[in-house]
Amino acid sequence: MTLPTRSYAAFLFDMDGTILTSIASAERTWTKWAIAHGLDAATFVPTIHGVQSVETVRRLNLPGVDPVAEAAAITAAEMLDVGDVEPIAGAAAFLASLPPERWTIVTSAPRALAEVRLKAAGLPIPATMIAADDIPNGKPAPDCFLVAAERLGVMASDCLVFEDALAGITAGEAAGADVLVITATHGTSHALNARHLRIRDYLDVTAKASSDGQLMIALR
User: Fold this and answer.
1) Measured between alpha carbons, how far is 149 from 126 in angstroms, rounded to an integer?
2) Using CA atoms, how far apart are residues 73 and 100, in angstroms rounded to an integer?
3) What residues are paired with 115 via a beta bridge?
4) Which DSSP string do the residues of the chain spell out, in sequence order?
5) Of 71, 167, 188, 212, which residue is 20 to 30 A from 110 by alpha carbon distance?
6) Which residues contact 14 (CB under 8 A, 6 or more apart)?
7) Measured between alpha carbons, how far is 50 from 53 in angstroms, rounded to an integer?
């Protein structure tokens, strides 16, 4: 476990794989879709994480396939499959300890799907949440984190981004933020190296606020 040593104006959290796990649900839906379109699901499904669904479909360049329509159908199917969506260990208590004006969620999921998954996991929905609907250029572009920081009235360079997937890690770094990688779902197999701070989950960490409202993450 490696933790940042500086303080931050705000914390920006990815959702899937970072504060909740919906991987089984998402992969079931995408596996069915991949098979229906003649794709090798075992090879394709690992590529879906951290990126907007419409971009995942678009980059396949499948003949006769409308990426927007397909992404909408996939989202609808995912919203019906949330039975095993649950919070990452310790995430609920960690989020509850934060001042509400000092954190938000930045997700590649459409807002409707994000709200369904957060409710299924018993996690709060911040008013300032950034979803796929809010940003034309999704991760790995930095736009989502830049807008999230702006909504909170801080600079992205003064934020700590919590992420699990390569696209999000890249977006956070491009926004000028520090990145803390959550390894509970994807482990350390993807693009993690010495420069990435990382923790497995939130069980052994706590957030501490200074007198001027700056946040730090520390061991319990």
Assistant:
1) 13
2) 33
3) none
4) -B---S-BSEEEE--BTTTEE-HHHHHHHHHHHHHHTT--HHHHGGG-TTS-HHHHHHTT--TT--HHHHHHHHHHHHHT--TT-EEPTTHHHHHHTS-GGGEEEB-SS-HHHHHHHHHHHT----TT-B-GGG-SS-TTSSHHHHHHHHHHTS-GGGEEEEE-SHHHHHHHHHTT-EEEEE-TTTTT-SS--TT-EEES-STTEEEEE-TTS-EEEEE-
5) 188
6) 50, 105, 106, 107, 108, 161, 162, 163, 164, 165, 168
7) 9
CA 158 to chain centre: 19
Query: Quick check: bond before 140 cis, omega within 30?
Result: yes
pLDDT mean values, one per 10 residues, the chain (220 residues): 89 97 89 94 89 91 93 92 94 96 96 96 97 93 98 98 93 96 75 72 93 90
